[in-house]
Specification:
homodimer; mainly alpha; Tetracycline Repressor, domain 2; 2 domains; 9 helices; DNA-binding
DNA sequence: CATCAGTATGTGAGCATTTACTTGCGTGTC
DNA sequence: GACACGCAAGTAAATGCTCACATACTGATG
């Protein structure tokens, strides 16, 4: 089988486990069962590899949010759809999503904020819902952060092995209720 | 002035900004305005320095949780006290707390789980409240994760510069309401 | 009070090792 | 024969850490 996808998988795993700076090309190559040189056939540098993987996850998440939120009406429905979609996607490719979740801060300097990153998208949805009086007024940045935190911290704790082997989806109903409660709380 | 505290401050800043693996002893020394050798007068290795700083923050947070939660009765009061205490402490030493928050995953392998880490403490409080019928039944691990996420994600977004220069405490009332809503949601 | 060994602290040049990355070569495919 | 792909060995730079030396403090001694 060709080496590129094997390298991508291996890199994802190693980056998720050791962080981008902690990961070595040697380790990635070993895990992918290729030589180090093989990596540089497909990427110019270790960082380019990391950024590529991260941006793919980031874009996939942004797209997921846009389509899921666009498909239904009302914040409550949007919240439910988003939670469910995130959980499902995370369960389907846990390595990708835990990498995205745990290594986010490494890539903050890179992505230009064009309003299409996940957090900003959620902020926009909330701001709009406040305008339409679906939600009580408040700082959308904070409300968005809190709502997102319900999901991300749960996912993080699962990544840290604190939730056993349950799928994240198993907790989706509870998380949905919690997110809705956060949105309405004041 | 003696070098040790200057090194600790510098290390905290550099670790918070670049991560433990991304930080170099050269950078830390430069920022502390000492030679690299000075670091090794006080710590055996870069990792020992990092672990020391992290554990100090970790213990401080655990102590804070135990005392604050022990001082009042009822989950609602405990939650309010904890949110306020965390916000205040974080504002007082933002560098320390953002380091703790952002670099947590690096140190997971190190701390033995003696039930005195912040997450487990919160889980215990919630479990107890459920037994006393103060909260509706549910998986305490998930409920704790969600409630904690309300705080940590907000703090994280502030660390990422998404909340402007507001003190975290400025949002404490809103966060308290949100945490309570999460605890009761089902 | 002066002295001086003992100790703690800081320096900066340098060392061994690791790391990301390169290069020359072989192999299979169109 | 051109080209894409992969390998093994190698390179230059960076990194964590050490070591011989210098300096400042301490406190017991005469």
């Amino acid at each position: 089988m060709s080496a590129k996808p094997r390298i991508e998988r291996a890199a994802l795993e190693v980056f998720a486990a050791h962080g981008v700076d902690g990961a070595t090309t040697k380790l990635i190559a070993a895990r992918a069962e290729v030589s180090e040189g093989a990596i540089y056939r497909h990427w110019k540098s270790k960082d380019e590899l990391a950024i590529g993987l991260f941006m793919a996850a980031h874009k996939r998440l942004s797209d997921l949010i846009e389509t899921e939120a666009g498909a239904v009406h009302g914040v409550a429905a949007k919240a439910a759809a988003l939670v469910k979609a995130y959980c499902t996607a995370a369960d389907e490719d846990w390595t990708l999503f835990s990498f995205h979740l745990l290594q986010l801060h490494h890539f903050l300097p890179y992505y230009q904020d064009d309003g299409r990153d996940p957090v900003t998208l959620v902020e926009t949805i909330i701001k709009y819902a406040m305008m339409k009086m679906e939600l009580p007024p408040g700082d959308p940045r904070v409300v968005a952060a809190m709502a997102i935190g319900v999901i991300t911290q749960t996912a993080q704790n699962k990544a840290y092995g604190r939730l056993g082997d349950d799928a994240l989806s198993a907790h989706a109903p509870l998380m949905t209720a919690a997110v809705l409660a956060v949105l309405k709380a004041r």
